[in-house]
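Quick note —
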Amino acid sequence: MTTCIDIIRHGEPVGGRRYRGYSVDDPLTDKGWAQMRAAVPENPPWEHIITSPLQRCRAFSEELAADLQIGFSIEDNIKEIGFGEWEGRTPDEITADDSEALHRFYLDPVHNRPAGAEALDSFSERVWQAYLEAARQHEGKHILMVAHAGVARAITANILQMSLADVYSRLRIEYGAIVHSAIDSDQPPKLIITGPAL
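Predicted structure written out below.
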């Protein structure tokens, strides 16, 4: 029996590029809505939607669930990682205070967290447990998680058994991008790279 879990990153939020963790709840721009709608395949396979509580994910989930006439649920543990004192700040605002802060962060995001930020290990664990619980609750189904870049990275890191720090520095996830995964009975989860449907 195969359980499929797709993870879509939200579209562009209002306010431009800035560090949005779980305490910044900006809605989607019109472009963000278009990015997410464009990512939905012609015949969506999803039987249930699990969404982050943040409105840049939740609002689209509600619309899509209504369109597909399927259920959706809100999962607090797939909200974005907390960025501490960087929450809501732009890269320019951060570098104005410390010109090397972002450089250090991307070289080693484990040991160069902003003050008050959520630890990467704790974040990865909460997201991974939410993923595994979703697989247990929806065994044999094809579900969609509507979440954040950090969530998609955390799931990818756990599936590939890589450090989240390495995935943070090497994996870019665009707005509206979808990461596909599958879990077969008695086997570890796998990432699925798909091509065009024929």
